[in-house]
Write a structure and sequence with these properties.
Length: about 425
């Protein structure tokens, strides 16, 4: 199939690269000319394992192209995915300006039947607006369909999530749209959930909101564990092995961050309010998440007593491992709280240092974990990168001013840390 992807951000690039890998001819479009130029050379603006290789390979075999022209893409492709950003406005609503602009630009260039698929995360009823916008701008008397095909990719493992999905959701309102999308997704051999457009839009928001709720739930449980000396890791395991609950997304820690959960929860709460429903449950999920950083901050304070003029070595800046993304990163939030209290910060992250330098001032960026530990009053684990699991703690102990580890991600065994001679504080587990 000939496929156009409008918006070459994280979702657009992954979608375009994976569809081309499966043998389709794909044009990825972006209005940022510099970005398009770099992409043509195979240089991608984000760190996503495997994506760069996939893009380079498919540019070479001529199945993947990059362009700044929506016109060229619309003329040559029957299926057009919209993957532009839908950032949050100040009131929490999703900003759909980009979607509207792209829909209008597609409409004026359509010279035959087109299937326009929304893949960006959008509030329910956006499909209706896309249809109205296209109808209002269309120049030639041609037929078209709108569909919704939400993505469920996690940063850091986007390619495997795309290639081996748990399910593929397609929201359609015509047989032609359904047939085209079924054909496109045939090679995946995955469960296809076919719904109407509004249900598909809601599946996306409801899924992200539910996952965020699991995280806030276990973080709330961690508070109780802390009080009574229970172990939240054991509680999560014991709960999660019940198939109705499931073990994933029950990891207590610094709370959720990233470009999706915080924004999507805000958008879901706001659209619910607009539709006359006060989504109290999600408001609580959000509040618990906001409070989680304060809870960890208090743990640091309780351990160090005075934070002012202390040096804290921070391991991890990205909002989660295997990405360089620091948007809404709990690590960055915590660093700012510590700086406000007068702490000096020495930080290290395997991928997110470059982006962090633009957002943080007064931080000493270190070339590795050991340099961050050198001379620090304590070591704070803020992102659970695999390389932090393998640290030589005998060496760390010698480098720190005092052997203290505050583990915001429950990476280590309390007993083991005690044996190594550390004062060790984690989340929802007995401090040692
Ligand atoms: C999330 C969803 O998982 C994807 O399915 C969805 O497609 C994507 O948003 C999106 O809407 O585009 P992502 O934001 O990449 O993906 O990251 P997650 O792996 O979901 O993690 C989100 C946050 O939750 C991270 O800060 C992570 O550290 C935190 N988290 C996750 C926990 O604190 N505990 C957990 O058990 C799991």
């Amino acid at each position: 199939m000939n496929i156009a992807i409008i918006g070459s951000g994280y979702v657009g690039l992954t979608t375009g690269a994976c569809f081309s890998e499966l043998g389709n001819k794909v044009i990825c479009v972006d209005n940022d000319l510099n970005k398009v130029d770099s992409l043509k050379k195979g240089s991608i603006p984000i760190y996503e394992p495997g994506l760069s290789e996939l893009i380079t390979r498919n540019i070479k075999n001529k199945r993947l192209q990059f362009s700044s022209s929506i016109k060229d893409a619309v003329k040559s492709c029957e299926v057009i995915f919209i993957t532009v950003g839908t950032p949050a406005l100040d009131n929490g609503e999703a900003d759909l300006t980009g979607i509207e602009k792209v829909a209008a630009a597609i409409a004026v260039n359509m010279d035959g039947y087109r299937l326009i698929v929304e893949k960006s995360t959008v509030p329910v009823e956006t499909g209706d607006w896309v249809r109205h916008t296209i109808s209002a701008h269309i120049k030639k008397k041609v037929k078209f369909d709108v569909a919704s095909n939400p993505e469920f990719l996690r940063e850091g493992q986007a390619i495997s999530d795309f290639m081996k999905p748990d399910r593929i959701v397609i929201g359609v309102e015509s047989k032609k749209a359904k047939d085209l999308l079924e054909e496109l997704y045939k090679p995946f051999n995955a469960t296809l959930v076919v719904t109407n457009i509004k249900s598909a839009e809601l599946i996306k928001h409801a899924s992200n909101a539910f996952l965020a709720a699991k995280i806030s739930f276990i973080n709330s449980v961690s508070r109780i564990c802390d009080q009574v000396g229970a172990d939240v890791e054991e509680v999560a395991k014991g709960m999660g092995l019940d198939k109705r609950i499931g073990v994933s997304f029950l990891k207590a820690g610094l709370g959720y961050g990233g470009s999706c959960f915080p924004k999507d929860l805000d958008a879901f709460v706001t659209i619910s309010e607009k539709l006359g429903y006060d989504f109290k449950l999600l408001k609580s999920v959000r509040k618990v998440n906001e409070e989680q950083l304060g809870f960890i901050f208090k743990k640091i304070k309780d351990s160090l007593w005075i934070i002012k003029d202390k040096t804290i070595g921070v391991l991890g800046l990205a909002f989660k491992p295997n990405t360089d993304d620091i948007r809404n990163s709990p690590a960055i939030g915590l660093i700012k709280m510590l700086q406000d209290e007068g702490a000096a910060i020495k930080a290290y992250d395997p991928q997110a240092m470059k982006k962090s330098k633009e957002f943080l001032s007064g931080v000493t960026f270190c070339p590795d974990a050991y340099s961050a530990a050198r001379g620090s009053d304590c070591l704070l684990i803020a992102t659970e990168w695999d390389e932090f699991k393998e640290l030589d703690f005998a060496r760390i102990k010698k480098l720190l001013k005092r052997p203290m580890v505050i583990d915001g991600r429950n990476l280590y065994e309390p007993k083991q840390m005690l044996k190594l001679g550390f004062s060790y504080v984690s989340v929802g587990r007995k401090s040692v």
